[in-house]
Every structure is written in C-alpha cells, then in structure tokens.
Specification:
Largest sheet: none
Shape: globular
Number of helices: 10
Helix content: over 70%
Distance between the termini: 35 Å
Structural class: mainly alpha
Oligomer: single chain
Mean pLDDT: 84
Length: about 210
Amino acid sequence: MYWSEFITIAFAHLLAVASPGPDFAVVLKQSVTNGTRQGILTSLGVGAGVLIHVSYCLLGTSILFSQSDMLLTAMKYLAASYLAYLGVQTIKASSHYRPSAESSGGRVSSVRAFRLGFLTNGFNPKATLFFLALFAGVIDSETPLRIQLYYGLYMSAATFIWFAILSSLIGQVQVRQFILQFGPWFERAMGVILLLLAVQIMLINA
C-alpha cells in the first residue's frame, strides 16, 4: 500500500545523499587520512545524524522548524561555524601533519570520527530543509507513524551504507597512497573545501 510512497522517498534520498556536500567531504577526508575503518565510523555517525532530522519530523517539531526563521538561521550559523572551524584546523594541521597510508587510528580517534560524522549531518541545515520538505510534501499525513519510522530508519541505514561503500573504496591503501603523495596539499585542499561549504551554507535562505 505504501510502496509507491517509499520508492519516491528512496529515490529522492538517493539523489540527496549522492550529491557532494559536508557529509561527503568529511567522509572523504577521514577515509584518506585515517583509512577505511575511520571512514566507516564517520559514515556511521552521518547515518546516526539522519535520525536527528527524522526524530523532530516524527515528533511534530518539524512544524516549529518550518515556521521559525530564527531556528533555521541559528542552525545555519552553527553548521557554518562548525565547518569553518574544521576547515581552519585542517589547514593549520597541514603544515606539520604527515598521514601514513598504514595508519588506522586508535580508540579516541574512532570516537572522534563518529562524532565528526554525527555533528556534520545533524547540524546541516540543508539536511533539515530536505527532511522538512520530505515529511511535509511527500509523505502523506495519513501514513501511520510506524510506517514513517520505517522510512526514517531506511534513510539512516541507506546513508550509512552509501558512505561506508565510499569509505571502503577510497580507504584502500593503493588509493590512499596515491592521494597522500600530495601530502599537505591534500589537507589544505580539504580545508578550503570545508570553508567553501561553510560559505555555501551561510548563503542558504532560511
């Protein structure tokens, strides 16, 4: 009964998750500099971050978000500030950090990897606007809450799987060795990309 709705949601989500953005940038950076495992942990954090957006949509607080420019603006500034901070830190670290293609990270860096993905997606106002549009314009208001929850869990899992596959491909030693030949230039490039993404978010009309 809900298959047509689900297919529409799955297609829209695929287009959204496949488009380059903050999630892609942080997963790429983690996979190249720290390997597949850290990339997958970051991907897990991104997938978990999706549940933040799903939760407020299911709880009905999405109405508050959609009606309050102040909330969306605050989230926009938070997201831009966070990405700008990551960008500046990455550029600063490029002058003395030399990642190895054999590094795998430890327990603390694993927690940070998950947190990085979680905060990047959770604070992303573009994701907020996407889920608001999805739950308000695509999902029928008569669709049972249980079915809507399944939609949300699917999108969280699909997001994780997409970026985990990306991490597995980019995190291969041969790929990392090729990219890391450029050493600090890769770090600087990623820092600039994060700063540009911060500027892009600031230009979003909340």
